[in-house]
Design brief:
The chain is 32% helix and 19% strand. With 968 residues, it is an alpha/beta fold.
Length: 968
C-alpha cells in the first residue's frame, strides 16, 4: 500500500523533490510482475546517495534482470524524519512510495565507520526491528525483509554491526547481488523459513551470515555450524561502464555529473590505505568501453560535466588518449572533464590537456607527508622533485589554486616531519609563482591517521593528545602564511572512527545506544558535538570505557619500545651536557637544578601521553613487540601486543596475506619502499590467483591530435517563446533546479542553442519569472535563442519529447530577436488560490483595525462581502523588507488589478472552540508581477482578507494560471 507522500511534503519540508522518485532514469518496474523486490538504501541524504556510483550501478543491474524489481530509499532529512514520526507514517521507497516493510530485501551501503547510526534511524523510521534476533524471534516479524549491508566498511570489519544485519555482502556486488536474487526467488517459491533461506545464502561466496558465527573470548570469529565456511571470500568483479548511466536528479547533488569508472583497484601499496588493499587486483577498463559509455551517457543524461573515477586515475595509462578522444568527440557540447584526487608524480601536460574545458575545475593532490622519510615509511612512492614538477606543471597550465591532502600521526612521525608539511607548502609557494610574481593559493586538509583493518598499519594508532599537539604545532607554523587555507580533522571523530573501525561484536550495543542518544549524520560537521556526546555516553554506559581510553591513548603503538630507547638516549645526552654546564657555571647550579626537575617532570608527562616518537629506525629484524603499559583507572589490563594475535576480521578472506602485512610493516620500520606490482615485479601480497584474478593493465595508447577547445556559438538566429506548465509533483522542483533541467533537456534534444560569451558560457534560456516552490502553474514562459532557424513545430516536438510529463508545452511562437525578453515585458500574473477561514482574530488577540471592513465578525465566512470590501478599499499598507535589510511601506492595493470569488463552500468540522463551520473559497486575482520586484503575492491577498474580515485566513493551495506580458 502506497504511502501518501504528497501529504507529507508540505511547505515546511526542505527540498521536497528529494523524495519524489521521478528522476530521469528511474525504473518504475511493475510491482506485481516481480518475484523478488529489492530496496537499495543509501544511509545518507538524497544529494549524497543519488550521486553515488556504486548505488547507481547496482540499481541498474538489478532492474535489468527479469522478475527482479529494485527501488531506492535514502536517509530523510531531519524535517521529514520528524514529520514521519509525528504522522506515524513509515519510511518509504521513493519510486513505488511503498513502505520498506513490503519489500523482500533491503540493502544498505556501509562505507563509513560511524554510518551505522544512520542505518538504525532508517530501520526505525520504517518500523523494522533493529537486530536480526528481533526480526527472527518475533512472530509478527515473519514477513520482515532481509536486511544486509555492503560497502567498504562492511567488507573491512562487519563485526561491530553484526547484530543488525541478516547477512553481509563482501566485496564487489555486480555479480554477487544477482546470485543472491536467484536464491531469494527460489526460496520464496519453496516457502523456506528465514533461517533456511539464510543458510542457502551462506553458500554463496561473498555472503557472510553473522548469526551462523560466534565470537570467541579473544575477539576472533568462528562458525557455529558445519554448513558454513570458516572464512568468507571477498568478491571481485570487472567494472561495466555501461551501467554507470543512470539517474539524473532534479535537485543538485554533491556529484552533479556523469561518472564512469576506468580502473578498479590500486596496487600502489600505500600502507595506510584500506581501499588500496581491499580492491586488489587492479582492473583497467577497455578504453573503447569508456569512450562509448561517456559519449552515450552524456547524450542520454544531458549532463555538462563528466568524471573518470578510480582510486588512482593517473595509473590508467590510457587516460590521456581516452580523455582526448572524448574531448574531441564532445568539443561542440560545452562539456568539462573532472578527475578525483590524482597522483602528482604522473600529472603532466598530457593530463592537463584533457582536464576542464570552459569551466576549469580545481586540482587535488595528496602528498600525504611533509618529508621524504615519512613518504617512504607509508610507501607513497613520491619524491620532492616529482611533487615540484607536478605542481609547476599545474601552474604553467593556468591553475592558480591547488588542494593538497596531508596526514599527521603516521607511524614513526617526529615533530620535524610534522613541521615538514608547512615547510613543503612554503617551498612550493616559493618555487611556483604565477606570472613570476603572484603566489599560488593552497587549500590544505590535514587529516588524522586512523588505522584501518587489512593494512600494514592496522597494528598502530596515536593518542588524541598527540594529534592535538601536532595540530597546534602546525597552526603556529602556518600562522601568517599568505595564500594558504588549512582545514583540520576533528580529533574526537578520529578516535571514534578508530574505536569502532577496529572493534568487535561487543560494540553493537554501543552503536545502538549512541543512536538512541541522538547520534546520526555523524560525518557532518554541524552534527559533531551532538554525535561526540552521544558516542561517549554510549561507551560509558557499555562498560567499554577502558577500551576507548586505550584508543585515545594510542593503543597498539608498535614504536613504543623504540621510543623509550630513544628517549633514554636523549636523556643521557642531556644529562651529560647539563653536568658539563654545571662545572663551567657553578654559580648557576641552583637554576640548573630547578631546570632539571622541570625537564624530568616534562619527560614523565610526555612519556605518559606517548608524545616522543623515535627519530630513526634501526635496521633490526626484530619488531618491538613488548607489552603495553597498563592504563591508569583501567578495569581491564592491556594485553601484550602480538602481531600473531587474533583480530576481529581474521575470518574474512580479502586475499591479502596477513603474513605479508607483517612483512610490509617491517619494511615500514626500515623506511623501505615496495614497487607498484601493476607495473613492476610481484609484491607477493597474496591476492593474485584463482579466487581474485590478476592485475589487468591497459597499455598507453597514442594520443589523438587535439581538435581544439569548445568555442561557444554566440550567434542568435532565432528566438522562440514557449508557454509551458509546471503541474503535479513538478511543483516541488525549485526554480534553479528547473533552469538546470531545461539546460539538460536542450542537450538531450540536441537543439542548436546559442551560448553567452565570457569565461563561463551558459545556454541562452531565460525564464520570465521564478515560480515559488510548491506552486503549480499552467502559464509559465521561457525564451530560447538558437544558432540556426528551426521549424517551430519541430522544436516543440523535440523539446516535449525530453521534458517530464508534468511539464507540458502549450504553445511555441517565433519572436523577433530585437524584441524585449519575456522577463522585460512581464507586467502581471493571474493566480487561482484556495483559502480557508479558521477563526476570529479578535478571539485570538490579533485584532488589527487599520484596514478593517465595515462588516461584523460573523460565525461563518462571508467571502463575497470581503472581496467587495477589498475592491472598495484604497490602501492596504505592508511593511516590505529588502535584501539589504531596509524596510519600506508598500500599498498592496495599488498592485491588485482584479479580485473575484470563483467558488465558496462550507465544510462542517468539529472545532476545539465548540463547533462552527470552516468556510473555504476559491479566488482568482490578477496582480503586479514585474522584474523590478513590484509583485503581489498570494500571501498579500491573505493579508488583505484578514484586514477586512478580522478573521484568520489560511492559504491552502496556489496555482499561477498565466503570466501577462505588456507589449506596449
Amino acid at each position: 500500500m502506497a504511502v501518501k507522500v504528497e501529504e507529507l511534503l508540505t511547505a515546511e519540508i526542505n527540498q521536497p523533490a528529494r523524495y519524489l522518485g521521478n528522476e530521469l532514469g528511474a525504473a518504475h518496474k511493475d510491482w506485481d510482475g516481480a518475484s523478488v523486490r529489492w530496496v537499495l538504501t543509501y544511509p545518507e541524504v538524497y544529494e549524497v546517495g543519488a550521486s553515488n556510483l556504486g548505488h547507481i550501478i547496482l540499481y541498474n543491474i538489478l532492474n535489468a534482470l527479469p522478475r527482479q524489481l529494485c527501488d531506492r530509499a535514502y536517509l530523510p532529512a531531519p524535517d521529514l524524519a520528524a514529520k514521519l514520526r509525528s504522522t506515524q507514517s513509515p519510511l518509504f521507497a521513493v519510486e513505488s512510495r511503498r513502505s520498506l516493510t513490503e519489500f523482500d530485501i533491503l540493502g544498505f551501503s556501509l562505507s563509513y565507520e560511524l554510518g551505522a547510526t544512520n542505518i538504525l534511524e532508517m530501520l526505525d523510521l520504517a518500523g523494522i526491528p533493529l537486530t536480526w534476533k528481533e526480526r527472527a524471534t518475533n512472530d509478527q516479524n515473519g514477513q520482515m525483509p532481509l536486511i544486509f549491508a555492503g560497502g567498504q566498511t562492511a567488507t573491512s570489519n562487519p563485526e561491530p554491526y553484526a547484530d543488525f544485519f541478516d547477512f553481509i555482502a563482501l566485496g564487489d556486488g555486480e555479480e554477487l547481488l544477482p546470485e543472491i536474487g536467484l536464491i531469494l526467488a527460489e526460496g520464496k517459491t519453496n516457502n523456506l523459513s528465514r533461517e533456511a533461506l539464510l543458510l542457502d545464502l551462506a553458500q554463496i561466496p561473498g555472503v557472510y551470515v553473522p548469526q551462523f558465527y560466534d565470537m570467541a573470548a579473544d575477539g576472533s570469529v568462528h562458525p557455529n555450524r558445519p554448513q558454513v565456511p570458516e572464512r568468507i571470500l571477498r568478491r571481485v568483479a570487472t567494472p561495466i561502464p555501461a551501467y554507470s548511466t543512470g539517474l539524473v536528479p532534479y535537485v543538485q547533488t554533491v556529484h552533479d555529473r556523469l561518472t564512469v569508472e576506468i580502473r578498479r583497484g590500486c596496487t600502489r601499496g600505500c600502507r595506510f590505505c584500506q581501499p588500496g588493499m581491499l580492491t586488489r587486483p587492479a582492473r583497467d577498463v577497455e578504453p573503447q568501453q569508456v569512450v562509448e559509455a561517456i559519449e552515450q551517457g552524456m547524450q542520454a543524461t544531458g549532463h555538462s560535466e563528466f568524471s573518470l573515477l578510480s582510486l588512482s586515475c593517473s595509473d590508467y595509462l590510457a587516460l590521456p588518449a581516452v580523455g582526448m578522444e572524448i574531448k574531441n568527440r564532445l568539443k561542440d557540447k560545452n562539456i568539462s572533464l573532472s578527475l578525483p584526487s590524482q597522483r602528482v608524480d604522473r600529472f603532466d601536460d598530457n593530463i592537463a590537456d584533457i582536464l576542464g574545458g570552459t569551466r576549469q575545475g580545481g586540482l587535488t593532490f595528496a602528498p600525504e607527508a611533509g618529508t621524504q622519510r615519512m613518504r617512504d615509511i607509508v610507501n607513497k612512492g613520491l619524491t620532492n622533485e616529482e611533487l615540484l614538477r607536478g605542481v609547476k606543471t599545474a601552474v604553467d597550465r593556468g591553475w592558480d589554486k591547488i588542494k593538497l591532502y596531508f596526514m599527521i600521526g603516521l607511524p614513526g612521525e617526529t615533530d620535524e616531519d610534522v613541521l615538514g608539511i608547512a615547510e613543503t607548502v612554503r617551498w612550493l609557494h616559493r618555487e611556483c609563482r604565477l606570472d613570476g610574481r603572484r603566489g599560488l593559493n593552497f587549500n590544505l586538509t590535514i587529516s588524522n591517521f586512523t588505522p584501518k583493518p587489512h593494512t600494514p598499519f592496522q597494528w598502530h594508532s596515536v593518542s588524541t593528545a598527540e594529534f592535538s599537539r601536532k595540530q597546534k604545532l602546525l597552526k603556529e607554523e602556518f600562522r601568517g602564511m599568505r595564500g594558504v587555507k588549512v582545514n583540520y580533522t576533528d580529533v574526537r571523530i578520529s578516535a571514534m572512527e578508530d574505536f569502532v573501525g577496529r572493534g568487535d561484536r561487543r560494540l553493537g550495543a554501543v552503536v545502538r545506544r549512541a543512536w538512541e542518544l541522538g547520534a546520526g549524520m555523524d560525518a557532518w560537521w554541524e552534527s559533531l558535538d551532538r554525535a561526540y556526546k552521544a558516542w561517549t555516553q554510549a561507551i560509558d554506559e557499555s562498560g567499554l570505557t577502558w577500551k576507548y581510553r586505550k584508543v585515545e591513548s594510542g593503543e597498539w603503538n608498535l614504536f613504543e619500545k623504540e621510543e623509550e630507547k630513544e628517549e633514554g638516549r636523549r636523556e643521557k645526552e642531556e644529562g651529560r651536557r647539563e653536568k658539563e654546564e654545571g662545572r663551567r657555571k657553578k654559580e648557576e647550579g641552583r637554576r640548573e637544578k630547578e631546570e632539571g626537575r622541570r625537564k624530568k617532570e616534562e619527560g614523565r608527562r610526555k612519556k605518559e601521553e606517548g608524545r616522543e616518537i623515535k627519530e630513526d629506525f634501526p635496521n633490526s629484524p626484530d619488531l618491538p613487540l613488548g607489552p603495553s603499559p597498563t592504563l591508569p583507572h583501567s578495569p581491564s589490563p592491556t594485553p601484550p601486543l602480538s602481531l600473531d594475535g587474533a583480530l576481529p576480521w581474521d575470518h574474512l578472506d580479502t586475499g591479502i596475506d596477513k603474513n605479508w602485512l607483517k612483512i610490509d610493516l617491517q619494511k615500514a620500520l626500515e623506511a623501505a619502499t615496495v614497487p607498484d606490482c601493476s607495473f613492476e615485479g610481484c609484491s607477493r601480497c597474496g591476492v593474485c590467483g584463482t579466487d581474485f584474478g590478476h592485475n589487468v593493465v591497459v597499455d598507453a595508447l597514442p594520443i589523438p591530435e587535439f581538435a581544439g577547445e569548445f568555442v561557444p556559438n554566440t550567434e542568435r538566429k532565432q528566438r522562440l517563446r514557449v508557454w509551458f506548465g509546471k503541474v503535479g509533483d513538478m511543483a516541488l522542483v525549485g526554480h534553479l533546479d528547473l533552469i538546470r533541467l531545461f539546460d539538460r533537456v536542450v542537450r538531450r534534444a540536441d537543439l542548436p542553442i546559442s551560448f553567452t560569451g565570457g569565461f563561463h558560457p551558459n545556454p541562452r534560456i531565460s525564464l520570465a519569472n521564478a515560480l515559488p516552490l510548491g506552486v503549480t502553474s499552467t502559464g509559465e514562459i521561457a525564451d530560447f535563442e538558437l544558432t540556426e532557424p528551426i521549424n517551430v513545430e519541430s522544436f516543440r516536438s523535440k523539446l516535449a519529447a525530453k521534458l517530464p510529463e508534468n511539464i507540458p508545452i502549450y504553445k511555441v511562437e517565433s519572436i523577433d530577436l530585437k524584441a524585449p525578453s519575456a522577463s522585460q515585458l512581464l507586467e502581471a500574473a493571474e493566480y487561482v488560490i484556495t483559502v480557508a477561514w479558521t477563526g476570529s482574530l479578535a478571539l485570538k488577540g490579533e485584532l488589527g483595525l487599520e484596514n478593517s471592513a465595515a462588516v461584523s465578525v460573523a460565525d461563518e465566512a462571508n467571502w463575497q462581502d470581503w472581496v467587495k470590501t477589498i475592491a472598495q478599499t484604497k490602501a492596504f499598507w505592508w511593511v516590505h523588507t529588502t535584501k539589504s535589510g531596509k524596510t519600506q511601506d508598500v500599498n498592496l492595493r495599488e498592485r491588485l488589478h482584479k479580485l473575484e470569488l470563483v467558488e465558496q463552500k462550507s465544510e462542517s468540522s468539529t472545532r476545539a472552540s465548540g463547533g462552527t463551520s470552516e468556510g473555504r473559497a476559491v479566488l482568482r486575482y490578477t496582480g503586479s508581477c514585474r522584474s523590478d520586484g513590484n509583485l503581489l503575492k498570494p500571501e498579500h491577498i491573505v493579508f488583505m482578507l484578514e484586514q477586512v474580515s478580522q478573521q484568520e485566513i489560511q492559504l491552502l493551495q496556489v496555482e499561477r494560471s498565466q503570466l501577462i506580458l505588456g507589449y506596449g
